[in-house]
User: What shape does this take?
Amino acid sequence: MSEELFAPIFIPDELRESTGGRAWLQSMLDAEAALARAESKVGLFSTDDAETIAAHCDASRFDVEGIGHAGRGPGSPVPPMVKALTESVRETSKEAARHVHKGATSQDILDTAAMLVFRRTTDIMLDGLDALAAACARLADGHRSTVMAGRTLMQQALPTTFGLKAAGWLVAVVEARHRLVYARAGLTAQLGGAAGTLASLGDDGLDVLREYANELGLAEPVVPWHTSRARVADLGNVLSTVAGVAGKVALDIVLMSQTEVGEVSEPSGDGRGGSSTLPHKRNPVLSTVAIANARRVHSLASTLHSAMFHEHERAAGAWHSEWEALSDALALSGGAVSAVREAVEGLEVHTEKMRRNLEITGGLLLAENVTTKAAERLGRMKAHELVEAAARRTMDNGTGFREELLADGELREALSEEEMDDALEPENYLGSSGEFIERALELCETEGISWKR
Assistant: This one.
């Protein structure tokens, strides 16, 4: 099976287990146990019968793959699961077996299971995001003064610090974490019966719904949401955001790892980053995996959006398209976070190469600073024209920027050599980078994320 060959590359074992078939089956059974207990609490049958049913709601009792194959006929794994559960309960109590799945429909159980799978998997993801944020914070703090080239449109633009770059990663991770926490807090139980009326539960329907949600620790819906799928689409949105943030950090690492740039390297060891033909290669494999995962999550989120319009009170196909899309989006976004976390935690930062790259242009990155200082005596437009002309001569003639600036009489009159040298010093043109780093670290601490070793 392809998932046995490829999935371990992209998804850690813990996430594979939390989104795998057994995890889904256990969540479906948890919904059945909660339903039985809720119905017993409102007096539909005895507590003993409910606890008998709950005692059999253990996925280890059942053949996951067999239930999946049996689900091909009804188009859902719930009917064969209910049948297997009923038969199992009957071995203990025929009376209790009569009450399995009472008043529910297949979608109630599977939608509720989706919420439980999301909650359990995001517990793992939140741990990963916290660790990633902490690693970013350590880089931001440790490289406050590590000057490097800031790049816009893939070209060197102005000096910045690696600490500020890492602080940007940190804030993005924390903001993605906020979204995930918010989504997790809003997870909602599903119980509506065959057409969303809970008619088979008579006057007890709303009481059962309330107790069912309480048992599961999920929010109680105002009405059943069988064909109102904004909740599921929103889960896709937040997973896409989380994966996108991980992908952005990963892409920066990939670009900074290029041979010609060489500013960072991913952690190596155990054959990581090797090539099947090129012995010298040290590929940024962790970041590569994260980017691949993020791309797939975006497509899966699109699938969840396209499944939003369901027909009347029950959809034909749209609902079915959500199951694996949501499960895979959870696994892959978690995998992206895990890969980037490992990359950032073990990142090797080559500060000397950052400095050399900064000096490649011979000072051209400080053209804006020279213009700003010269403008105090020459005016903005005149200073811009003169500095731009000096920059053009530098690039055309292969001369030094400082040399061309001082060769211009008007600029030399506006700025002394000492003032020019001061304007061409990268450390003197970092703006509020230090303050921004401090603000990012304060945010991390406000969130309760421990990052100091």
